[in-house]
Specification:
Largest sheet of chain A: none
Distance between the termini of chain A: 44 Å
Strand content of chain B: 15-25%
Number of strands of chain B: 16
Number of domains of chain B: 2
Oligomer: heterodimer
CATH class of one domain in chain A: Mainly Alpha
Shape of chain B: globular
Number of strands of chain A: 0
Strand content of chain A: under 5%
Radius of gyration of chain A: 26 Å
Number of helices of chain A: 15
Structural class of chain A: mainly alpha
CATH class of the largest domain in chain B: Alpha Beta
Shape of chain A: flat
CATH superfamily of one domain in chain A: MetI-like
CATH architecture of one domain in chain A: Orthogonal Bundle
Largest sheet of chain B: 6 strands, mixed
CATH architecture of the largest domain in chain B: 3-Layer(aba) Sandwich
Amino acid sequence: MGATAEDAAIRASARSSMKGRERANMAMFLGPAFLVVGFFFVVPVFVDIAISFTDLGRELRITEITTKNYERAFVSDRQLPAVIWRTLWYVGATLLIFNTTFGLLLALATTSISRTSGTFFRAVWLLPRMSPSVVYAILWVWSVHGGDTSLVNQVLMHLAGTEEPIDLRQTSPMWVIIFANGFIGASFAMIILTSAIRSIPGHLYHAARCDGAGSLARVWHITLPQLRWPLTYIFIWQTLSLLTSFEYILLITGGGPFRATTVYAIFIFQRAFGSSGQYAYGAALAFFLIVPGVILALLLWRISNMRRLLQRPRIEVQ
Amino acid sequence: MRTLLHSTAAAVLAFSASLPGISASAQDMIELTLWSRADPSGPLRPGNILKGAERLNAQLEKDGADYRVSITVLEQPDQGGYDGDAERLLRSYAIGEGPDIFHAAHEWICAFAEPGFLFDLTDFTNDHPEFFADIFPSLWASTECGGRRFAVPQDAEARMFFFNKNLMRQAGFSDEEIESLDERVLAGEVTLDDMSDIAQQVVEKTDAEYGILHRPSRGPDYLMIFNQYGSSFLDPETGKLLLEEDKLADAYGWFERNVENGVTPGNNTSLEWNYIRDQFYQDNNAAMWMYGVWDLGSSAFPRGVPSDQESFFEQFGWTAAPAPEKGGRPGSLTHPIVYGVGAGEHAETAATVVGYASDAELNTDHAVTTTHIGIKRAQLDDPRYAEAWTLALATELLEFTHYMPNHPDFGTLNAVIYEALQGVETGQLSAADAAVYVIEEAGARIPDSIVVN
């Protein structure tokens, strides 16, 4: 009796110490991540919302709590509708052309050639992502500026025989930033899809070959269906990432000429930190980016049934 | 202290103005900070403040005072011109990190004065005629906000159309037409469209690529054209910024026609400053360049443009901005740079340093080395000033000159005007749309500061 009680007490104490250890472990392993997320993702959202209801301007003084920033965004800021359309066009084009389609093509191409060549080409496509933003942007500026010394004009004038230099930042600024961002974005899909393609069991392909499937049929019927979830993940992630596209556009075109490449994130920057220093209005505009960002993420999560991807596997394969 | 400025300063030069034989540590040292832009067109703007502090310390020693002054220069590279400078300095003052002395474009002074960042110099300048009485009265207007003086003029200049006589000769203009161009402009016989026409003929008949080039960033010069088409930007009744749609559209129309006729390149606003200067001063590749007289000292002469009067005028000429209609009045724009003094504990000492720095001799050093116009009557008697032919001739344009309005939000309005100019030249806005854009954007950014007519 006494022993049983003692055992129970020992077990209870062991359980409680295990729970304590679990908590300590959790705090130790997840604590830093929670702190980072809290300080750099959650707190700024609340700071942004708080500032958006003030009149904080270039004098950094708050004299009133107001909703006028939101009224302005909805009523008097005539630029906003054009900026939103431009952003959708930019995000859509970059996403569809480069960040998914081209990334997929790169992954398919580099996995269908020899391993060494595949690794080499993937490394080449990773270069833009590995270069510092400013270096990458300057390379673009050198490539497309309107003088006859730019890379594009050297090629056109010396090899293609064009007489006058062209200035792509003036004539097709949106395509310049789509290409500049797309070259970086494509490598993201390339890496994820490469590993996804590698993880497709080889016997499926062997069986398909036995059944007489050609290479296109194998890609269409085996590879692509297996890539559905990675592609969905890439789609969600890159949409949100492109909505906040900022530094390359600022460095390559500055949002111009005029407003031709002023997408939403650049617009916020211009309004908040540009000539007028309207921080509170910038905060209100940024809030609009937070809300659709969260809604879009949840919506895509729901549509794509992402939860199934993250579920524990029902069987354990050893 | 001054961490914000320190963090971005390209170079921090410490200057201790102690005199030989006197130990600085024996007296109290008042440490002042001076913000300055690293700028080849005005190295003596900070340099004269240092000399001013030196002279003040000499006087303090003579008077047996128990303190001395030292100046720490916080020098930044050019980032966005005077507009960018002012915006950054405003942020520094807003967090209590503003310098004791700085130099700024005059139209920004009220943006500093309104929130109380500046020392009100009205009484100080009146109480110290030995420093300030000789300054041209017209220049003081550029330092005032609401009738109070918040800055001290540092220099002035004249903005004009430079033209390349060699290219005009090549295009078939006679020597008489070329040599009389400036006088015909001043007499109202040549209009803005006539100037564009001359530039167009140069582009069509010579190898030169460009007709009229203008600055590739926001700033004052293109505002001359708006002034000429009737926009003064200031409503005398309310003191607010005045926007008149038809007059704005007229001015944008001139720029629009220039691009359509191949006179101004559509990408003028994205060209590099030095590229433009090379095209005009060095490469004979542009007929005209709308800019200011100080550019000769800091950009033209170093590029090999002859610096003696006769040779210069053989190759180049300059004139005021013509009127839009025949018989109209030509115009020019002067854009004084001013010293502001922060409203800190040592404001009076800092103002005294500025007083010493505004000495006629020191200002003439700046004027003659950088082709800027001086601030005091006494400078006109200085033989060095009289010998600097660029200054004497540029001073003639002051007869027609305008100022930009001293309004806290004019800098913001000018940013909008420049954006619309870029919109027009890149073909994304018509002249009429640009006028509407300016009114709408100014209405969104500075709704309480504008009057629309």
